[in-house]
Every structure is written in C-alpha cells, then in structure tokens.
Amino acid sequence: MTLSIGEIKHRLGEEFCAHFERVFGVNVFEKILRGFACERKPCVRVNALKTNVRDLMNFLREKVVNFERVSFLPDALVIKNRDEKFFENLDLYKKGEMYFQGVSSQLPAIFLKPASGDKVLDLCAAPGSKTAQMAIMMKNIGEIVANEFDKIRVEKLKFTLERQGVKIAKVVEGNGVFVGEKMPEYFDKVLVDAPCSAEGRINISDPRSYKFWSKKVLKSSANLQKRLLASGFDALKKGGTLAYSTCTLSPDENEAVVDSVIKKFGDNVEILKLSLSGFEKYLLPIVVSYDGATFDKRVSNCIKAMPSEICEGFFVAIFRKK
Fold this sequence. Notes:
The chain is α/β, with parallel strands linked by helices and 322 residues long. Helix content is 35%, strand content 22%. It has helices at residues 5-12, 14-24, 26-37, 53-62, 84-87, 91-94, 107-112, 129-137, 151-163, 179-182, 215-235, 255-265; strands at 43-46, 67-70, 73-79, 98-100, 119-122, 143-148, 169-173, 187-193, 236-246, 269-271, 283-284, 289-290, 293-294, 303-305, 314-321. Strands 5, 6, 7, 8, 9, 10, 11, 14 and 15 form a nine-stranded mixed β-sheet that branches. A four-stranded antiparallel β-sheet has the order 2-3-1-4, with helices on one face. The radius of gyration is 19 Å and the shape is globular.
C-alpha cells in the first residue's frame, strides 16, 4: 500500500513535521518523507578476507538472487529479490564471507581510509559492522581498539568480528568519553559513529522507529556526541584523521556539532571536503544556518545522505588534526 504524504505526516506527528519543514523546506522534506515510506533493499558487503566480489556474484546467480552492484562501493551488492532471512542458513553467510551492512553505514570507513599498519580507534563499535569493514580494508594488518559501552552489545561485537575473521581488533568495554585521556594521541585514525536520534532509519510502517522522537532527544544526543568527539580528538595523533558519523538528519546533531568542534579546536582542525562519484543523487543539502546561528562555512564540506530505497539517512564529517 502506497501512503500519501498527508498520511505519512499524520503518523510522524505535528512537532516532527514542523521541525523538518523548518530545517529543509517543504519540497526537500517531502523527498525525505518518501524515503521514510519506501521499502529499503538489503545490501551485502563482501568480506575480502575470505572471498571476492566475483565469486560471491557467481554464487548469488546460482541461487537465483537478483542483485545490483553499487558503483561507489566496489565490495557492495544491493539485493533485489530476497531478504536477509533467505541467507541465514547458507554456509557462505555463516562463515562470514558476506555481511549485511547498509550502503550508508559503509561510508564512514570509505572516507576515513584506514590502511594496513594503522592504529585505529572505533569509539562506539557495536555491533561491529564498521570495525570489521575497517579491518578488511587494513587486510588484517595493524591495530584496532573497538570500544563499546554497553555490556550486551559487547558480546554482539565480539561475535561479528569473530565470524568475519578479524584478527587485529581488541574489544574494550568502557565509556568512550574517557578513552582519549587514557590513550592520548595514540591513533592514526579514529571513528566516532555516534549514538543519535536515528531519524535516518525511520520506517513509517514501524512506529517504534519514530515514536520516541523529541527535541529533548536531539539535544541530549548532541551533547553526548560533543563529549565523544572531544575524547576522539584527544586520542588522535597530530596529522591523524577522525570520522564523525550519525544515522540522523537534524542539524542539531550534525552540522551544529561539527561547528562546535571547529569553534573548540580552531586552527588545530581541518574539515576535509567529501564527495563520492555516483552518490550525488542521494545527497541532502548541508544546513549552513539554523536557529538564528550561522555555521562555519567549512561545515558544508560534510555530506548528508537522504533515506531512499538503497540507503538510510546518514551524515559524515572527516576531520584532520593539524
């Protein structure tokens, strides 16, 4: 059943819709609403530690699985006619040769570019999708500290890394806010995939994905993100790079947080200009002024993905510590 824009707005509520119309304008907001309502196709990331994309594609063809390659993610395949449940009992899935990871979720590591021999911190690591992706990019050479605050999620993280054959990650249970002071200027690369209000993951058919939303949640999420970023910068070597990402859309948690980092660190931080050929049609405009404030112009170097049939809403910024 295709829902009208009016019905989608009704489900999301007046406060939510008024907020987003003010941020993005009516036309862009309606595109976002359609993204909330569309059926998102699952995406598979090939585990290059165990197989290669050609062999996986041949296997999928044998299983009559229709797929499409993602031009800007060489090891990603969008599955067009099966859901994740179809793969759960296949040996290839159980052995970790393939892993379900959304298109947007793969972007932070692609932009961060961890390489063999790097020392990498994943500050909010569970369930381990990005940790494993980075280990694969590093060819299992180097060092990753995978930090997670939640004890239950730590077990999920360990399971993910073991199944995918990750050998270089040390799982640490602790509050990410304090990692920087414990390991100052130790890491070449830091990923802060921060806890957020998850607006980019809204599925209009699942009220659990949006009923919790409030301005209070935005504010508390942004405050935590600032503390985590400060810790991440403390842990980062001079000359190192840090990726900050969220699966949310409001500038409270994204652009405003980046602007606060620029104000805090001043000339000691650089914001890298991000672009990805083939991904342009999925991008939302970066917000440069909000709630009476004008952000530093370098905030426009970040990217924000729109929810669509192949990706969740997502935000990525890359900082370099001078």
